[in-house]
Structures are given as structure tokens and as C-alpha cells.
Amino acid sequence: MGEDTANTDPDADRTGLETEIARDLRALTAISEQIGHVFARSNSLRPNDFRALMHVATADAEGAPVTAGQLSKLMGVSAPAVTYLLERMIESGHLERVPDATDRRRVHLGYTEHGMSVAAGFFGPLSARTRAALGELPDSDLAAAHRVLVGVTAALREFYAELPESGQAAD
């Protein structure tokens, strides 16, 4: 059982709370990566295959499906490397190319029914555990946590865009 690092002191200073949130996010990232590696290994996927699946899932959830070119930039790999990766993922039944509804020349990447089924089979128990863990919390706490995560995600994306190696930073 992990140590509870949550600060329950109502007088905790803001800097302390921000430090704890940063620590919690690092722990969340670390365990998420470990779970991702187990998923990849159990489904004969390479680490970059799983990274690609995460980018496709995130883009879909945000209502902005990703193209192969965008995936190449997000992953920081060459177009030929993404093409090779996508061919493997399409052949294995995890992903498919989906024509854009408004511009038939554009092709997005999406999960297949098989890919969704594989993901649901593996991550379903995690979803149930997460719901149980959050079940005792009031909606106001969940709304506040969501605002925190949205803010931190925006800060991370802004920071990434400014990094020279991201390929997005201004020259």
C-alpha cells in the first residue's frame, strides 16, 4: 500500500499545495507509464505503438482527430517512421484510417472496434477502480480537480510548444 501524501492541514500554504499537486502528477505519470508498458507487452505492441494509441485516443476525446502528419509531430518521429508504425497498427486491427467528413482528401486516425474492445478489456477494471476511488468525493471536489488538471495540462502544452526540440517553438 502506498503512503498517503495528501496534505490534510487546512492551513497549508499555496506553495505547499502546488508542490504536492506537482508531486502527485509525477506519481500519476509514473504509474500510468508502468500500466501502459504492461498493456503494450500484453498486446504485443511496441512502446511507440502505445504512445500512438494514447495520442489518437486523446485527440478523439478532445474532438480533434489526429492525422498521420500530426501524429508524426506529436511523437517527434519522422513521417516514414509513423507510416511504418501505422501500417503495423492497422494490420494488427487497433487503428484505421478514417476519411474526414468535410474534406475527403484528409484522413484521420481512429480506433477500430477491435482496438476499442482490447482497450476496454484491459482498462475496464482500472475504470471501475477509479470510479470507486472517486465515489466518496463530492461533485464540487471533482469539479475543482478537473479545473486543476485542465490548467496543468494547458501549462504543460504551452511549455512543450516553447521547447526548441518540440518542433513548434518560434525560431
From TrEMBL:
<dbReference type="InterPro" id="IPR036390">
    <property type="entry name" value="WH_DNA-bd_sf"/>
</dbReference>
<protein>
    <submittedName>
        <fullName>MarR family transcriptional regulator</fullName>
    </submittedName>
</protein>
<dbReference type="InterPro" id="IPR039422">
    <property type="entry name" value="MarR/SlyA-like"/>
</dbReference>
<keyword id="KW-0804">Transcription</keyword>
<dbReference type="InterPro" id="IPR023187">
    <property type="entry name" value="Tscrpt_reg_MarR-type_CS"/>
</dbReference>
<dbReference type="Pfam" id="PF12802">
    <property type="entry name" value="MarR_2"/>
</dbReference>
<dbReference type="GO" id="GO:0003677">
    <property type="term" value="F:DNA binding"/>
</dbReference>
<dbReference type="GO" id="GO:0003700">
    <property type="term" value="F:DNA-binding transcription factor activity"/>
</dbReference>
<dbReference type="InterPro" id="IPR036388">
    <property type="entry name" value="WH-like_DNA-bd_sf"/>
</dbReference>
<dbReference type="GO" id="GO:0006950">
    <property type="term" value="P:response to stress"/>
</dbReference>
<keyword id="KW-0805">Transcription regulation</keyword>
<dbReference type="InterPro" id="IPR000835">
    <property type="entry name" value="HTH_MarR-typ"/>
</dbReference>
<keyword id="KW-0238">DNA-binding</keyword>
<feature type="domain" description="HTH marR-type">
    <location>
        <begin position="18"/>
        <end position="154"/>
    </location>
</feature>
